[in-house]
Amino acid sequence: MKHVVIIGNxxxxxxxxxxxxxxxxxxxxxxxxxxxxxxxRTALMYIYMGHMKYEHTKPYEDSFWKKNKIDLIYDxxxxxxxxxxxxxxxxxxxxxxxxxxxxxxxxxxxFDWPGQNLKGVQSLYSYPDLRLMEESTKGxxxxxxVGGGLIxxxxxEMLLSKNIGVTxxxxxxxxxxxxxxxxxxxxxxxxxRSHHVQLILDTELKTIQGDKDGNVKSVTTNKxxxxxxxxxxxxxxxxxxxxxLKDSTIETGSGVLVDEYxxxxxxxxxxxxxxxERTYDLxxxxxxxxxxxxxxMMGEVVAQSVCxxxxxxxxxxxxxxAKFFDIEYQTYGNVMPELKSNEEDFYWEHASGxxxxxxxWDKDTKEFRGINAFGLRLRHERFDIWLRxxxxxxxxxxxxxxxxxxxxxxxxxxxxxxxxxFQQFPxxxxxxxx
Length: 434
Ligand SMILES: Cc1cc2nc3c(=O)[nH]c(=O)nc-3n(C[C@H](O)[C@H](O)[C@H](O)COP(=O)(O)OP(=O)(O)OC[C@H]3O[C@@H](n4cnc5c(N)ncnc54)[C@H](O)[C@@H]3O)c2cc1C
Fold this sequence. Notes:
Helix content: 10-25%
Number of helices: 11
Bound molecules: flavin-adenine dinucleotide
Distance between the termini: 64 Å
Strand order of the largest sheet: 3-2-1-7-19
Oligomer: single chain
């Protein structure tokens, strides 16, 4: 019986395990050193805020694994020997595999700041990080968060829920403006401030200072401003968690290098999820994508290949969603922070500053490129199909109303949006009518 070993029990590894079980009777072992059971990483913030308990974040009963003949090992893989197809674990144990799937996720970035190891200074990625944060913020009054991304804003919401004041240091000129166009980034920056977060833009962390007991007491910015605090959250991005592979024959770049079948340079060794780096182009997609749904898709695809039906990883048009305090965000296709020379766009923002829509299309062909929605819920499947069918912008605007799935009684804005669109682009109206 083939033994498939998966390192990592996050969404990628567990999706692979579940699908391999559905498709085969292979022996399956999942090894992970974070928690014995799979839990939803994206729900970490809700545990801190008291909305959920850890137990509620586990999508499967603890009995599921035995019932489905998926063996779990709670240990850390320190070495992979591909010649003998063996894994060496921290406990001293060795595990032999026929097929190996590396699904080891990410690790939080740190940039060797003086003071980054003081007590009360940490990142947020894992369940142990969450437990540490719960401990470190007991009695805290003032926090500094460094790095304006999705984990940073979640951390701000978490801290505010415990009445801890938050100063947010962001290197860019607006919040998340390396991803969002200027208009949206500016709207979200205003929204963050409306939650009484002190958002300091264009500013980086220089050093972190501690007291005589090794507890953090302040940070100094690159503009030599000193900010007193008793907690520092470092949320400056994540990188593939692959250090344990450094002495192996498995090729790595920033992540584990994989081809279109998610296979590494070594036969029967695959990598999926946050830790995988594609070596081939996919239009509008990055080589490393550190999000939940891509991990799940890769897990499904690799299961097919491992079970004898070689399948390419073709995720289709990009999409993502997030929440910035009260504003839900969805993106379909590609809306880049800067318009490309061949692109044109339309931006609508509601007077409340809580809702916005941004559409981008090709200036010459009018082909729809992507849409960002804030505070408005749009149907993913419609945009996925329209992007694949290369619909034009006229079609998108004409059919905008049918994409909305805001709950009943929510105020609808399509009429206003479409009117404003045609005021700005009257020629497109003629084109659609003709
Ligand atoms: C706070 C937070 C909020 C997020 N919110 C969102 C969101 O809203 N939407 C979204 O799309 N994405 C979100 N993400 C990102 C998303 O959670 C990740 O993209 C996803 O969890 C990656 O899944 P994975 O299975 O590839 O890796 P992981 O979930 O990281 O799982 C890998 C596991 O492998 C273990 N491991 C690593 N190395 C070893 C080793 N050598 N031996 C044994 N075990 C090992 C790790 O400890 C970990 O448990 C969020 C991330 C965080 C941290």
